[in-house]
Amino acid sequence: MFKPYMMKNVDMIIGDEATGPNFKCQVRGVKLNPEVSVQRTKTACPTGQYAAVDDPEWTAELTYLYGMDDGEGTVANVLADYLLAHAGEELPILFRPVSGGAGYSGTVLTIPGTIGGDYGSFSEQSVSLPMIGQPTPVAAV
User: Fold this and answer.
1) Residue 133 in this model has a pLDDT that exceeds 80
2) What is the Cα–Cα distance from 20 to 113, expressed in whole angstroms?
3) What is the dihedral of CA 81, 108, 101, 77, to 10 degrees?
4) 42 vs 4: CA distance, rounded Å
5) Mapping DSSP to helix (H, G, I), strand (E, B) and coil, where does residue 7 land?
6) Segment 89-107, tens digit of pLDDT
7) How far is residue 129's CA from residue 23's CA, in Å, rounded to a whole number?
8) At a CB cut-off of 8 Å and minimum separation 6, what does 12 contact?
9) Structure pTM?
10) Domain limits of the chain?
11) Which residues contact 63 (CB under 8 A, 6 or more apart)?
12) What are the residue ranges of helices labelled H in the chain?
């Protein structure tokens, strides 16, 4: 029977799965989004309808909170700073909608995300990272 995901306690790792930072405490949303080009044409013949789709181009769309390391406990990797430091690199990505559950892996081209925000509010930002190829399902651990 089908069971929908309740997005909470996700894993959102950029870099090596074993050593890469897990940004789960900073991301508010993760979407692996395909963009597909559809071509259609129709002729005067009643059966002359044709359609084709191109291979999808994927992006990893991340919504995140901008912030800083609080100086207590384990040093936090700040997502905006990480993306800035690794701009232009192809890095592995692992997304699990539920920590330790099944998910998706792939490779993203890192680009800087928005830094800063509006006065008097938490700074919620977003970035769309182009994926190289398409995501691959991964089993739960």
Assistant:
1) yes
2) 18
3) -10
4) 38
5) coil
6) 999 999 999 888 999 999 9
7) 15
8) 22, 23, 24, 27, 30, 62, 94, 95
9) 0.86
10) 11-33+59-138
11) 27, 28, 29, 30, 124, 125, 126
12) 79-85
